[in-house]
Amino acid sequence: MASISFSAYAGVFDFKRVDPETGEEGVFVEDAAILKTLDGLAYDEEVFSDYLLDGENAGELEDAGISGGSLAFSFDSASGRLIGRTEYQLERALNPDQIALLKDYTIGQWSDGIGSNFFQERMRHGLAPQLLVMDESAVQVEQRAH
């Protein structure tokens, strides 16, 4: 057994506040005290592995026995930022090509899939974290054998 996780800094927007200059809802939050309130926030109504084998590269990942993949957030006190993380369980370690495929898939789900569903749900509550990755090198990857 093994696991692999992907993590990146999350942007957080407060939909209970209005930008005084533009009049738009969804003010970007940088206050560490506010971000810290989201430590431990998780979305597990859907898991990323549910849709993994629906994609074009499914065959290359099918034999790895990938399961799980919920979206969870933790506050990083060193940077004062919120980190989003998705962790999968694996029947065996992935090779570099498989890691790259799973990373691309995960980034896609963060921005336009499960992560988007979660963001839209959280908008109603006010604080909504979002993982939009502009540079894939900003995503941390950690694979561990168990």
Structure description:
The protein has 146 residues and is an alpha+beta fold. 25% of the residues lie in helices and 36% in strands. Strands 1, 2, 3, 4, 5, 6 and 7 form a 7-stranded antiparallel beta sheet that branches. The termini are close together. The mean pLDDT is 93.
Describe what is shown at a glance.
The chain has 146 residues and is α+β, with helices and mostly antiparallel strands.
Set out the fold topology.
Elements: E1 2-18, E2 25-28, H1 32-36, E3 42-43, H2 58-62, E4 67-76, E5 81-90, H3 96-112, H4 114-123, E6 127-130, E7 140-145
Antiparallel strand pairs: 1-2, 1-5, 1-6, 1-7, 3-4, 4-5
Task: Summarize model confidence as the mean pLDDT.
Answer: 93
| Major beta sheet summary | 7 strands, antiparallel
Helix content: 25-40%
Shape: elongated
Query: What is the number of strand segments?
Result: 7
> How much is the radius of gyration in Å?
16 Å
Strand content: 35-45%
* Low-pLDDT stretches: none
Secondary structure category: alpha+beta
Number of helices: 4
Distance between the termini: 5 Å
Q: What is the H/E string? A: EEHEHEEHHEE
